[in-house]
Amino acid sequence: MLVRQGDVGRIVQSTSQLHPAAHPFRCLRPLHRRAAAATANAHSDVASEAVLVTNARVAVQSNPREVYQICEAPCCSTSAASAAQGAPSVDPTVLAALAGLGLTAFALKRIFDTPSRKYDNNVGKEYDAWTEEGVLEYYWGEHIHLGYYSDEELARGYLKKDFKQAKFDFVDEMLKFSGAQNPKTILDVGCGFGGTSRHLAKKFRDASVTGITLSSKQVQRGSQLAEQQRVTNVNFQVMDALSMDFPDNSFDLVWACESGEHMPDKKKYIEEMTRVLKPGGTLVIACWCQREAETHGSAPLSEQEKRELQFLYDEWAHPYFISIQEFERLMKGTGTLQDVSAANWTRNTLASWRHSIWVGVFDPWVVVLKGPRIWYKTAREIVTLERMHQAFAKGLMEYGMMTATKKPLPPAAAAGAAAEGAAAPAAAAAV
């Protein structure tokens, strides 16, 4: 409400009939300094009002355009009663709402900080569920692993790259890293939906490619996609990577992309893949690794780091992670692998974590239409993806790449193996 020159008299008349401590006289907060000085020096409510109004008249007369702002605070009264009446108050409904929001936020944090899928020999079951839901395949495509982003692509901005194409690029870069040349028999350990298996089968048409997984649903889906794509030189089987049914020295290339994270015995994992690898063949591994700790002069893990790692173990059914250096030691420890080498690919894979979140933001409908259970599960995945990003970004986690070749057999042993290989077809023909 604004008071102009013509209104001053009416204000004085109306306010003079009220007791100073009880009336709701609205404070005139003039821009003119004399009104403020008069209010500050007043010794009584009535005197304050008189001085204020008098000075207000003078101010308005001296500048007809000056406007006085009406305020709610009882600044025109110096009595304790007036001050008490004008004390600010907060609506109890607002306080209750704020308290409710605080409790909700606290509860949600507790929920999302509590892992939901601890490792309990449940890897196959979890991948069966992910396969049936279809959300993972919808966003990640045929490959359940991180993508590769070159330095030039990172400079341009990772969101400009197709998320699914980044995964195909990763397979091609991993193949280059391995150094494998025209393998005729390929084993994909932990093949998922079989995206890598089919990609390698298309690249090496004369090769026979086998993918193994603990998930029967993944075998079923991988076989469907192979049929749809008319890839005939690939097959998928349910098999435990720690106890494979294949004979010794069966494959020219053993490929393990992001399967070691789920293995409860990393040493056995390396030894079993080495066993089925042919002499002269190539073993290549890609795996999420935690930083080296408490060995060879490296700093121990802090309590905070241990808590962060434990969450990453327990949310996605991981028994534990090891370092890149530990992978190297395990490979050298087999006694049959040579030319062991390793690299840290964190820089060129890190963008995948947040990229996978953004593809869902840009296209949320497959999740929206699946209902509350998938909403909750997807929210948990987003939290974990971001926590993975942070762990890799600060060096707690590293993206490990390891490769080696299997030593050739001694001459005598090689001759014996050749004889066994020639005898097997003859025996089969005799039957």
UniProtKB/TrEMBL annotation:
SUPFAM superfamilies: S-adenosyl-L-methionine-dependent methyltransferases (SSF53335). Pathway: Alkaloid biosynthesis. Residues 186-195 are annotated as: SAM motif I. Residues 249-257 are annotated as: SAM motif II. Keywords: Alkaloid metabolism, Methyltransferase, S-adenosyl-L-methionine, Transferase. GO terms for biological process: alkaloid metabolic process; methylation. One of its GO terms (molecular function) is S-adenosylmethionine-dependent methyltransferase activity. Residues 276-285 are annotated as: SAM motif III. Pfam families: Methyltransf_11. The keyword Protein biosynthesis does not apply. Coiled coil: none annotated. Belongs to the class I-like SAM-binding methyltransferase superfamily. gTMT family. PANTHER family: GERANYL DIPHOSPHATE 2-C-METHYLTRANSFERASE (PTHR44068:SF11), ZGC:194242 (PTHR44068). This is Methyltransferase type 11 domain-containing protein.
